Amino acid sequence: MPKSNKDGGILQGTKQNFNKEVHTLRLSLTTKCTLNCRYCFVEKDGRVISLDSAKKILRLFLSSHGKDKMLIIYGGEPLLFLGLLKEIVIFSKKIAKENKKKLIISNGTNGTLLDKQNLAFLRKEDVKISISIDGKKEIHNKARITSDRKGSFDLVIKKIPLLLTSMEKKNICVLFGVLPTSVAELFENFLYIIKLGFDSVNIEPIQSPLFKWTDKQQAYFKFEMKKVVSFVYESIENNDFVFLNSVNRELNDNGMSKLYGKTLCPFYQNLEVYPDGELAFSPFLINSPQKKDYIIGNANSNFLKKYEICQYDCQSAKCQECLDDYRGTRNAKRNIADDVVKMRNAYSIYLARKIRESVNTRASFRRYVGQAKKRIFE
Predict the structure, then answer these.
(1) Which residues contact 117 (CB under 8 A, 6 or more apart)?
(2) Tell me, what DSSP letter sits at residue 145?
């Protein structure tokens, strides 16, 4: 690792020559949490990012090429450290303004700590909230549990009325985790979430060693996604809009097509900063035994030389080779969970294209696209 210069490598040395566009930065504020979900990849060891480390990477992020920026704050549970969260949000907006960037900030939460105080702050600062709900009580409680292994549904559901009355709907999204063991009920649980009063959902197939997908479950996912796509399309026809975050991204800037086609440099979409300042291209590496092989730098020092000097050319074979080497995809075994995510993306692209085909002739579709572009949560 290169030594830090006097004022911090990333803050000064790298920033001056940084040639890459970073569209999305995921900042892991803490590993501490109020829950202990069975599929969570984060060890609850209580680490918290320092404000100094956060500021260093945020300066780099918000001065990098490109006008549009997306900051995703997650954990653990970020609302455990509301003071730090406030400072990060306010600092980010200040630096974005100085650099004339358009910044969206999204805060991921399990919902257990939502109250009038933190919701008032998030509303005032126009921060989006992504709340994790896996569906009906019996489904949600399969994996989203407390440290004493009790289901968290009752803790979360009582917060929903306050959330829906405190925030604008365009700033609320449900992170709908789909377990392979519950995939046959995907559409039923999707409808349940809508009936709770939400209109934005991000369907997230769970990727975890404890919940491995079979070919049969993948087929169920395809069948259920077809029903979701039909429902969303019909909602537009009926002027009763329901939004999917992945479709919104595609309607906004072809965000799914770019990802689906593997044309993006990981600096653009996958830059992560962990609580100790380590930088990587995946949240799943935060506690991996092989993490050291994938760390690309540290907010308190610098990027590895390889990443400092590489040129941003996401279409080149060299960049694709770099990405394949980083992910280990050349020798990796087939991962059905990845296939399920790709299927979600493919259906999102299909639905977005179908919506676009109706924009010029139907007013409800034009209104829908306009609202969808305001509902980007990740």
Answers:
(1) 82
(2) B
Tell me the pTM. 0.92
Q: What would the mean pLDDT of 185-212 be, rounded to a whole number?
A: 95
Which listed CATH number (3.40.50.800, 3.20.20.70, 3.90.1150.10, 3.10.290.10) goes with 9-372? 3.20.20.70
pLDDT of 215 over the 70 cut: yes
CA angle 290, 292, 297 (to 5 degrees): 145
DSSP code for 10: I
Per-residue CA distances from 294 to 282, 287, 289, 290, 297 (Å): 9, 11, 10, 7, 9
Name the residue with tokens 């490109």.
66
Measured in residues, the chain has a length of 378
Q: Which helix (DSSP H) or strand (DSSP E) does residue 172 occupy?
A: strand 172-178
Q: What is the pLDDT of residue 18?
A: 80
Mean pLDDT value across residues 22-49 = 96
Sign of the C-alpha dihedral computed for residues 344, 226, 204 and 246 taken in this order: positive
Greatest extent of the chain over all pairs of C-alpha atoms, in Å = 60
Structural domain boundaries in the chain: 9-372
Residue 233's pLDDT band (cuts 50, 70, 90): very high
Cβ atoms within 10 Å, residue 365 = 19
Question: pLDDT class for 207, splitting at 50, 70, 90?
Answer: confident
Burial of 82-91, coded b for 16+ CB within 10 Å and e otherwise, reads eebbeebbeb
- In a 10 Å sphere around its CB, with 0-12 CB exposed, 13-18 middle and 19+ buried, how is residue 272 labelled? buried
